[in-house]
Amino acid sequence: MALASPQVPTTPRPDTINHIVALARGWSLEATLPNDADVASLDPIVRPGAPVYLTAVPTHDPVAQIDAAARLHAAGYAPVPHVAVRNFATVAALDSFLARMAGEAGVRRVLVIGGDRDQPAGPLRSAVEAIDSGVLQRHGIAEIGLAGYPDGHPRLSPQELDRALSEKIEIAAQIGLNVHIVTQFCFDARPIVAWIARLRDFGIEHPVKIGLAGPTNFAALLRYARRCGVSASAQGLARQSGLAKHIFAMSAPDALVRALADARAHGHLGDVALHFYSFGGAAATARWAAAVAAGRITLDADGFQVAPPGQGR
Fold first, then answer.
1. Domain that holds residue 148
2. Which of 10, 27, 69, 232 is the most exposed place for a label (fewest CB within 10 A)?
3. Is the pLDDT of residue 42 over 50?
4. In the chain, where do the E strands start and end?
5. How many domains does the chain have?
């Protein structure tokens, strides 16, 4: 189903900060194997009980992800680990992983993905197989996150992605799992708005966490974009940013947040929240997101600047 890309509207300036704050209030964070110091740095920035997503790293032992989840749980947060099913050599290994996540880290939500391996380590090839197996409910998982790709996927066509997402949502509904969608990060509001509009047109009204890269430098952003297959909008970022001149400059997603806030205010997105990938560090990303949610911002030409503590709202 091909739809025209909706225009990202511009709202009157006096309302813009309110719209940004309203969108940012429900933000969530993603980190990669945070250690004790990383977890401690989140206090008091991240509210108790807040979800913190944990990336699955194919080159690390899954035990490291369990340990990180246990640290977050002990500190009062709700760890939401990625479960990359192609990383598990056996179904029994996945079963053991989930048992430990539930028992040692109180996990009740997971993000289920296929994973980046070209060849699966075991019999599970796709997220839908794990969802349909009953292994998640056996360990008390009540809600799953599913991946969305506004900027496309390096290996799958848009039609294949649509079909897979619909199938996973349908199976989850049949077996009583709640569902939300977490998108891959993107650097352009237009494909994000268009992609969510397509979801809503298909009748998919589930909550969407819009993935954004937290503040970091351009070189790191492009490196992660290449690794994650985010190509089209990354090329636009490089052109717009004068990459050769600003290769070591810091980048924050303020213009993107502002455009998405305008789109949400005009009723184009439905139930959405912001989800930050902490490429520049979990604490730095959390500080930036918390400041935006608190309204400590001043508008500029296209985006906004975050004010130091004690300034702004």
1. 13-217+254-293
2. 10
3. yes
4. 28-31, 51-54, 78-84, 109-113, 143-148, 178-183, 208-213, 216-217, 250-251, 272-277, 297-299, 304-306
5. 1
- Residue 245 domain-assigned? no
Q: pLDDT tens for residues 155-202?
A: 889 899 999 999 999 999 999 999 999 999 888 899 999 999 999 999
The per-residue DSSP string of 67-106 comes to HHHHHHHHTT-EEEEEEEGGG-SSHHHHHHHHHHHHHHH-
Q: What angle do CA 85, 86, 91 make, to 5 degrees?
A: 60
pTM value > 0.85: yes
| Position 39 in a domain | yes
What letter represents residue 305's amino acid?
Q
Q: Is the pLDDT assigned to residue 225 strictly greater than 80?
A: no
pLDDT per residue as tens digits for the range 59-89: 788 899 999 999 999 999 999 999 999 999 9
